[in-house]
Specification:
Number of strands: 10
Family: Belongs to the metallophosphoesterase superfamily. YfcE family.
Number of helices: 4
Largest sheet: 5 strands, mixed
CATH superfamily: Metallo-dependent phosphatases
Strand order of the largest sheet: 3-2-1-9-10
Keywords: Metal-binding
InterPro entries: Calcineurin-like_PHP_lpxH, Metallo-depent_PP-like, Phosphodiesterase_MJ0936/Vps29
Number of domains: 1
Enzyme class: hydrolase
CATH class: Alpha Beta
Strand content: 25-35%
CATH architecture: 4-Layer Sandwich
Organism: Reticulibacter mediterranei
CATH topology: Purple Acid Phosphatase, chain A, domain 2
Amino acid sequence: MQHQLGIISDTHIPHFKRIPEAVWKHFADVELIIHAGDLSTLAVIEQLATIAPVEAVQGNIELDDVIQKLPIKREILAGNCRIGVVHILGNAQYYARTARQEFPNARVVIFGHSHNPYNQEHEGQLLFNPGSANDRRRQPTCSIGKLFIDDESGNVRGEIIPI
């Protein structure tokens, strides 16, 4: 079976007024949305849930309702693929080591925080940061991502989507 997941991070609502309209277009065919933190408010989950079910973790800039409801990290299963989700993975030079320590059995580790898209395989573990949906910082555009999982072949592929 094939799976498509929508990956988003660093929406920072209400500092930024809304989730970009492009998210609805690009996530229209996903079966699950993963938010890698810095939602800032739980209303983001409610809005995204109009597209597909949402799994999320808290980031480092959250209102109290998010902190009370969401874990700092979690593991989920999408098809046959184990996915670790955390907001902060640390310094880029240690991403691979930190990901393996935090999620030793995960095929994919999704993270956010830096607002810098990242999509690289490290010794059989895909590390994926979609960038920020609302705050491009030093990037040319804001971005989101998609994860493609093929249960039959075991292949997993991430795609960064500029918006």
